[in-house]
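Researcher: Next sequence.
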Amino acid sequence: MVIQPFTLHFLQQLGKHNQRDWFAAHRQDYLLARQNFEDFVGALIAQIASFDPGISGLRPQDCLFRIYRDTRFSKDKTPYKTHLAASFQRNGKKVHNPGYYLHIEPGGNSFIGGGIWHPFPEDLKKIRQEIDYNLEEFEQILRQPAFRRRFGELTDEEALQRPPKGYAADHPGIAYLKMRNFIVGHEMTDEEVLSPGLLKQITGSFALMKPFIDFLTRALDD
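Model: Next structure:
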């Protein structure tokens, strides 16, 4: 299963003509691109489920995001997203749990990710507590050579400037405790997206992420 060139081409053209009239005239092209992406997501679910059984019950429609933008509170009133995306979480994308993410967008803007973005305040407290109690285990996950080669260092541009309440500034894990998002990932070129090896590449990346996902999931399950 591969991402077809016409899928990237449609998204590229949508970026140039992000208007309802154009989209209506090219709706058949959109349906073809979406079907290609949906088929790829279905194949990816099967691959993820081979090492993360919690994903096995998902269907592609449980994972895909709509292409229609919510413009109610945005200055950008363009009606459509210029990417296709899917989130793979136990119990589906509507559950705000740690999971895997795939984003396809032409121009070198495609990427995969994993973890949790903007957790609820109570969930963030649980994650920080889990890191506090099990810092050595968390660091071992992040320091695995294959993990670091693929994803680099865990960072967060939205990290707090000061230690969160209840944690000292000299805590050995303070850099992680200041974080508000726990995400790893890597970008993909258009050539990689269109490569026959994409499914295998993404599967390998998600398999490397699983201990990180498991740690975050355990924090919220406790």
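Model: The mean pLDDT is 95. The beta strands are 84-88, 99-104, 110-116, 182-188.
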